[in-house]
Design goal:
Elements: E1 7-14, E2 18-21, H1 22-26, H2 33-40, E3 44-47, H3 51-66, E4 75-79, H4 91-98, E5 103-107, H5 113-126, E6 131-139, E7 157-165, E8 173-181, E9 189-190, E10 198-199, H6 201-223, E11 232-235, H7 240-250, H8 261-264, H9 271-281, E12 290-297, E13 301-308
Bound molecules: oxa(dethia)-CoA (UT7).
């Protein structure tokens, strides 16, 4: 099959309005702003909204930047671990808000979901589709126990989205990828039906560092690239110390890393597109750059993609 190319026609992201600072959390649990910042890199997080509402808002922004309408979207992939309902999935509700008339499906791969979605989108482009909407959206406040300082400090709400499309010019391309899962680790981070998240934080930390290193290397091997070929990396935003520990092993630097954790907390499937949106705002990625996205999280799951960047040029956007 001919390589269809892979272009980020538009990216968008939103955070709900209500900010919860570390000091706010300190009023109800035995913690402090200093401890949370030093051990996680998180300064505040957002709460409120619905998963479908945030997803649709981020997607509408991405579509506007891509200059496309509802009829131009061929499939919607929504990565979320906090769906609006147990049944049905949230993607059809997002499609309804946006006025899409296409397939719409949820991806539940926890914090790796949006990167899983990119790989699936590339597969759909290979099968002949033109343009896929890949969204990550979460309302984790509904699954967070704010009396448990081991988990209650970490999570937040938000959404990010990308319109990815064929790139016949050959400029943009998905160069390499890796997807993985290991169900042995379900009970290090999980939630029962209608329950809150339970976590063995130390084990998640340890397994996350291993998964990042393994997945990044597998994607590099598939692409025939080395760490030195990567211009920019956006990892899942869980804990700055996880990223620093993994980077020490891999050889990436924080200067080539996109982070948004300080203002968002861990927004699971939304975290990478939320960070990407900021990176584009700051003009840190340009056409032709080799960019790696690395997701990891509950399951455990992990997912990496390496792309030659083409598309969303924020400097050309006026609003
Ligand atoms: O998408 C993946 C989602 N999950 C994650 O990314 C979680 C990965 N794990 C982590 O981020 C870290 O393990 C945590 C942030 C959850 C915990 O940090 P840590 O450095 O592993 O702390 P710890 O559990 O080893 O606890 C150290 C100390 C303990 O006190 P003692 O026993 O030394 O007296 C804890 O009781 O810090 C205490 N502690 C806290 N103190 C203030 C634990 N949580 C808090 C807190 N505030 N929120």
């Amino acid at each position: 099959m001919t390589n269809p190319g892979f272009r980020f026609a538009g990216v968008g992201a939103v955070l709900p309005d209500t900010i919860v600072t570390n000091d706010d959390l300190g009023k109800n649990m035995d913690t402090s702003d200093q401890w949370i910042r030093e051990r996680t890199g998180i300064g505040s997080r957002r709460v409120g909204g619905t998963t479908s509402g945030l997803a649709a808002e981020a997607a509408a922004l991405a579509m506007k930047r891509a200059n496309v309408g509802p009829d131009d979207i061929d499939q919607l992939l929504l990565a979320t671990t906090s769906p609006d309902y147990m049944l049905p999935g949230t993607a059809p509700a997002v499609a309804e808000i946006l006025g899409l008339d296409c397939g719409a499906i949820d991806i539940q791969a926890a914090c790796s979901g949006w990167v899983y979605g990119l790989v699936m989108a590339n597969g759909l482009l290979l099968q002949g589709e033109e343009r896929i909407l890949v969204v990550g959206a979460e309302t984790l406040d509904r699954m967070t126990d704010y009396t448990d300082r081991g988990t209650g400090i970490l999570f937040g709400n938000g959404a990010g989205a990308a319109v990815v499309e064929k790139d016949s010019s050959g400029a943009g391309e998905l160069l390499g990828w890796d997807l993985g899962a290991d169900g042995k680790y379900i009970k290090i981070l999980w939630a029962e039906h209608a329950g809150t998240m339970k976590m063995d934080g130390k084990e998640v930390f340890r397994q996350a560092v291993i998964a990042i290193q393994r997945s990044a290397n597998a994607a590099l091997d598939r692409a025939g690239l080395t760490v030195e070929d990567i211009d920019f990396v956006i990892p899942h935003q869980a804990n700055i110390r996880i990223v620093e520990a993994a980077w020490k092993r891999l050889g990436f630097t924080m200067e080539q890393t996109g982070m948004r954790l300080e203002e968002t907390g861990n927004t699971s499937a939304a975290s990478i597109p939320l960070a990407l949106d900021k990176v584009l705002d700051d003009g840190r990625i340009s056409d032709g750059d080799t960019v790696m996205f690395i997701g990891f999280g509950a399951g455990m799951t992990w997912a990496t993609t390496i792309v030659r960047w083409s598309g969303d040029d924020r400097s050309a956007v006026t609003s």
